[in-house]
């Protein structure tokens, strides 16, 4: 691993206290970035990730922010930029996994899921652009179910993750003249607290992938790191899959 690929750069990872978000925050820090991360709950876990980032010799911030609250998500961006004077990489990872039959999920569930999974990334990107320079990166984390929904009860979640594709393409067009790239990553089944590889449905889920296994969060973080790196300078508006062949 090149420990200097992100030297001098700063990053904000929403939902960075655990799972994919924590792995992304640590991977960017290992590459030389100073990293801020947000959390809604689990302050201790967020502070643990921040401490590990500092252990890598980088600066870190753990910021309490609900991505469904416009003022809080925008405030996290402003706090990061104010602390370090710039923002080079935004990774929109925070999300809520809302499941249930469409007949059971009403307006409140709809509004909350859209607020966190769609409005949050939009507002974070909108705020971040004010502090970004040419060469900056925005990466959103979607989901494999945006393109293949194999079980009932995923309508609302799939709807929000599908919306990120349109947002990504629109932002890429808007921000291209500024030299800012915008890309979307759809991870497949990944071994996290929310979706453990030894969970009750894991055997079925593994069978839906071509590789027959779950990803480790670090594998997803590597793809995010590439999209945030100079090596992806000509990628924008792309929807990238790291799903073990879930959608093939």
Automatic annotation (TrEMBL):
Residues annotated as transmembrane: none
Pfam family membership, one: adh_short_C2
InterPro entries: KR_dom, NAD(P)-bd_dom_sf, SDR_fam
Ranges for domain Ketoreductase: 9-188
Gene3D superfamilies membership: NAD(P)-binding Rossmann-like Domain (3.40.50.720)
Keywords: Oxidoreductase
Superkingdom: Bacteria
Similarity annotation: Belongs to the short-chain dehydrogenases/reductases (SDR) family.
PANTHER family: OXIDOREDUCTASE, SHORT-CHAIN DEHYDROGENASE/REDUCTASE FAMILY (AFU_ORTHOLOGUE AFUA_5G02870), SHORT-CHAIN DEHYDROGENASE_REDUCTASE FAMILY PROTEIN
Protein name: SDR family oxidoreductase
Organism of provenance: Actinacidiphila epipremni
Lineage: Bacteria, Bacillati, Actinomycetota, Actinomycetes, Kitasatosporales
């Amino acid at each position: 691993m090149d420990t200097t690929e992100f030297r001098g750069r700063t990053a904000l990872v929403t939902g960075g206290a655990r799972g994919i978000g924590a792995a992304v925050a640590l991977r960017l820090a290992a590459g030389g970035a100073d990293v801020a991360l947000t959390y809604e709950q689990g302050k201790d876990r967020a502070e643990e990730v921040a401490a590990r980032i500092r252990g890598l010799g980088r600066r870190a911030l753990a910021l309490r922010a609900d991505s469904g609250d416009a003022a809080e998500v925008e405030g996290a961006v402003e706090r990061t930029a104010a602390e370090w004077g710039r923002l080079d990489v935004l990774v929109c990872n925070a999300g809520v996994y809302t499941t249930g039959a469409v007949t059971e999920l009403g307006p409140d569930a709809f509004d909350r899921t859209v607020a966190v999974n769609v409005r949050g990334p939009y507002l974070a990107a909108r705020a971040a652009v004010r502090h970004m320079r040419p060469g900056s990166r925005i990466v959103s984390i979607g989901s494999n179910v945006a393109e293949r929904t194999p079980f009932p009860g995923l309508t609302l979640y799939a709807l929000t993750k599908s919306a990120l594709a349109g947002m990504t393409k629109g932002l890429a067009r808007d921000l291209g003249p500024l030299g800012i790239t915008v890309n979307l990553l759809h991870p497949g089944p990944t071994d996290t607290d929310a979706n453990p590889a030894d969970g009750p449905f894991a055997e079925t889920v593994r069978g839906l992938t071509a590789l027959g296994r779950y990803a480790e969060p670090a594998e997803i973080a590597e793809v995010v790191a590439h999209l945030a790196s100079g090596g992806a300078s000509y990628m924008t508006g792309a929807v990238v899959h790291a799903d073990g062949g879930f959608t093939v």
